[in-house]
Specification:
Number of helices: 23
Largest sheet: 2 strands, antiparallel
Helix content: 55-70%
CATH class of one domain: Mainly Alpha
Structural class: mainly alpha
Mean pLDDT: 81
Number of strands: 4
Shape: elongated
Strand content: under 5%
Length: about 500
């Protein structure tokens, strides 16, 4: 449509020019000695237009010829840029898809061929990332060095190189080297949030609790970290800070926490332990009571029940209030039992401990019952509960199916004199078998007397013999032979006859 409009405009202009020239029939005389040129006005106008157009196109042609080298260089640059962009795109796609070998080839090719500083740094960092994921750290460091050289004095490119390098160092747990690169990037306004996150990661690896706490708070205010993860970091760093805090620094650490953070089980446990260490059991109880009012935790309950008789009564009242809303909590029942033991309320303590034991059997409850029966003068029941506590401490302990028989020492002349001196009276019935000098005995859970696992059959006493003088070594060690063991196969079998 536009072409038709322009065609009509040209035709209209031609018709108008023809009409104008028709009404003007004058002549144009050009005198240039020795020539004299006379033209009609219409022809002179047409020739002038043609000359103008010819001169215009001639000048444009000369300008095109003069700028040909620059245009050729620009064309080559555009072609090189297109090739670099294609290599960079293909390399990054391979990195994202996990084809690191092909990605490294494309990016290394781009690194050696490109003349652009930006693309050289990008290619170097991308190739270093691919080599890092391949585990080739030596080549990765070489490529990072090339990228750093390509960055030159450009602060923006140097920051990019330092950030990527620090992130790779953190993947290798080289936190100290990463800190050297990241610390200069941390500005006062903290606009470099990714660098701040990497800095937080480095301080976590090094165990710098104070810096972890500060950086987590900063990222949480900026909304640059997941809230759940931030709460976990604050919890961990606070526990570490509290473990080292002294009396003078308690207010600064504890006062900086929010009310919700103080009720966290881990934080409350650490805070209560600090107060106990500093000699403030009442403040420790207050911290534990606030946390336990929110959630019953066995660790807090066990620490809360660990007190002397002067505090047991008050704590017992708080625990009984919690029992109304948690009647079947085994940890709370065990804590009540322990508090009753501290207050010497033996019957009530046994009641709570038996209720807790019916819900959950563990080492702590059995040990408390053992202490209770021991205080009441019931050694059999105390021993039984302590044994059960040991068994509950390691339910995965393998059961020994077979035991070595005890050593038979009745043929040893050193023991015959002792046996003859301790002969039983005629009215006493001797045992069918004598106890071994060293044996293994077991006692069942009902508290019966110990019985030997195995005893050798009776044998006639050996003829009396005069014992030889014994050395100090023979006086100490049991020289009786072990049944079923070939002593000739031992390391000193050649010395035994």
């Amino acid at each position: 449509m536009r072409s038709w409009i322009w065609t009509l405009i040209l035709f209209a202009a031609a018709v108008a020019l023809a009409l104008v020239l028709r009404e003007h029939g004058g002549n144009v005389l050009i005198v240039a000695q020795p020539w004299r040129i006379e033209l009609s006005l219409s022809l002179a106008v047409v020739l002038a237009l043609v000359a103008f157009l010819a001169l215009h196109w001639l000048l444009r042609a000369l300008n095109w010829l003069s700028t040909s080298p620059g245009r050729l260089r620009a064309w080559r640059g555009r072609r090189a840029q297109k090739r670099d962009v294609e290599l960079l795109e293909r390399g990054w796609i391979n990195v994202l898809e996990g084809r690191y070998v092909q990605a490294e080839k494309d990016l290394s090719n781009l690194l050696t061929r490109t003349r652009s500083a930006d693309r050289k740094v990008l290619a170097g960092l991308s190739a270093a990332r691919a080599l890092h994921l391949l585990g080739e750290t030596a080549r990765r460091d070489q490529v990072l060095k090339l990228a750093q050289e390509g960055a030159g004095q450009d602060s923006r490119l140097r920051q990019a190189v330092d950030t990527v390098t620090a992130e790779m160092y953190l993947d290798q747990n080289r936190a100290e080297e990463a800190l050297v690169l990241l610390e200069p990037l941390q500005d006062a306004s903290s606009r470099f949030l990714h660098g701040t996150r990497l800095l937080l990661r480095a301080h976590r690896q090094l165990g710098h609790a104070d810096r972890v706490y500060q950086l987590t708070r900063l990222l949480l205010r900026r909304g640059a970290i997941d809230e759940t993860q931030a709460r976990q970091f604050i919890r961990e760093s606070t526990v570490q800070r509290l473990s080292k805090v002294e009396e003078s620094g308690w207010s600064a650490v504890w006062g900086d926490l929010s009310a919700d953070e103080r009720l966290d089980s881990d934080v409350a446990l650490a805070g209560a332990q600090v107060q106990i260490r500093l000699g403030h059991p009442a403040e420790s109880a207050r911290i534990l009571e606030a946390a336990l009012g929110r959630r019953m935790d066995d660790r807090l309950l066990r620490l809360y029940a660990h007190c002397d008789a002067t505090q047991a009564g008050q704590r017992l009242g708080h625990a009984e209030l919690w029992l109304k809303s948690n009647p079947d909590h085994p940890g709370l029942l065990a804590a009540l039992g322990q508090l009753c033991l501290a207050a010497q309320l033996w019957g009530q303590g046994e009641h709570y401990l038996e209720r807790s034991l019916a819900l959950r059997a563990d080492t702590h409850i059995h040990a408390l019952l053992g202490n209770l029966h021991d205080a009441l003068g019931h050694p059999e029941q105390a021993l039984r509960n302590w044994r059960l506590a040991c068994q509950a401490a390691d339910d995965e302990m393998p059961v020994i199916a077979r035991l070595l028989p005890a050593a038979d020492t009745r043929g040893d002349p050193r023991f015959e004199e002792t046996t003859a001196a301790a002969d039983p009276a005629p009215d006493e019935q001797p045992l069918a078998t004598s106890y071994a000098a060293s044996g293994v005995y077991v006692q069942d859970e009902t508290g019966l007397d110990a019985m030997p696992i195995s005893a050798p059959p009776p044998r006639a006493p050996a003829a009396a013999a005069v014992p030889e003088p014994l050395s100090a070594e023979d006086e100490y060690f049991d020289t009786a032979p072990i049944p079923g063991v070939d002593m000739s196969q031992t390391s000193d079998g050649s010395a035994r006859k």
